[in-house]
Amino acid sequence: MTKRRNCPLCKKPVAQEFQSFCSRGCRDKDLLKWFGEDYSVPGEPAMIPDPEADGLD
Ligand SMILES: [Zn+2]
Questions:
Q1: What local confidence, expressed as pLDDT, does residue 6 receive?
Q2: What are the pLDDT digits (tens) for 1-55?
Q3: How many domains does the chain contain in total?
Q4: Is residue 29 part of a domain?
Q5: From ligand 1's centre to the CA of 29, what distance in Å?
Q6: Within a domain: residue 7?
Q7: Which of 10, 22, 29, 40 stands 20 to 30 A from 51 (CA)?
Q8: Residue 4 lies in a domain
């Protein structure tokens, strides 16, 4: 009944602990792929205008 799936990245048989991937490496890679493609990582704002710095010389 249990359908065996293969890792979408390297086609190895998946490991149960990694659900649909063969290893943590492939799982992470897939996650990173998704994050890299469609999500822009919020990260830190590069420049914040600081009102208090204005005019202080
Ligand atoms: Zn894999």
A1: 93
A2: 566 789 999 999 999 899 889 999 999 998 888 777 655 556 666 676 777 777 6
A3: 1
A4: yes
A5: 9
A6: yes
A7: 40
A8: yes
